[in-house]
TrEMBL record:
It catalyses: adenosine + phosphate = alpha-D-ribose 1-phosphate + adenine; xanthosine + phosphate = alpha-D-ribose 1-phosphate + xanthine; thymidine + phosphate = 2-deoxy-alpha-D-ribose 1-phosphate + thymine; inosine + phosphate = alpha-D-ribose 1-phosphate + hypoxanthine. This is Pyrimidine/purine nucleoside phosphorylase. It comes from Desulfobacter postgatei 2ac9. Gene3D superfamilies: Jelly Rolls. It is an enzyme of class 2 (transferase). Pfam families: Ppnp (PF06865). Its EC number is 2.4.2.1, 2.4.2.2. PANTHER family: PYRIMIDINE/PURINE NUCLEOSIDE PHOSPHORYLASE, PYRIMIDINE_PURINE NUCLEOSIDE PHOSPHORYLASE.
Length: 102
């Protein structure tokens, strides 16, 4: 899906890591939400509350999920992150992403 219809978007950006990771929150009529964002090259450590599906729209990175080794991910690929966990990213090129909260 290349676009979302009938949504509400929060104007204020979510800004992390001194502005190197930013996103906007998108709310759907069914109550679900996603974030659309950009990550600049760097190393980042994230925590989750809910299960997440991270769709990488473009870019190259590595991810380390809990208890797993580093894995390369490129644009067009996705991965799931368990709830209440921590994961690490090494962003190699500017990365465009969509995060769905499951």
């Amino acid at each position: 899906m290349s676009q979302f219809n009938n949504v509400t978007i929060t104007k204020e950006a979510n800004i992390y890591f001194d502005g190197k990771v930013t996103s906007r929150t998108v709310f759907f009529v069914d109550g679900s939400k996603k974030t659309l964002g950009i990550m600049l090259p760097g190393a980042y450590d994230f925590n989750t509350d809910s299960k997440e599906l991270m769709e990488i729209l473009s870019g190259d990175l590595e991810i380390q999920l809990p208890g797993e080794s580093w894995k390369k991910i490129s644009g067009g690929e996705s991965f799931e992150v368990p709830p209440n966990s921590n994961f690490k990213l090494k962003i190699h090129t500017v990365t465009d992403y969509c995060c769905s909260y499951l």
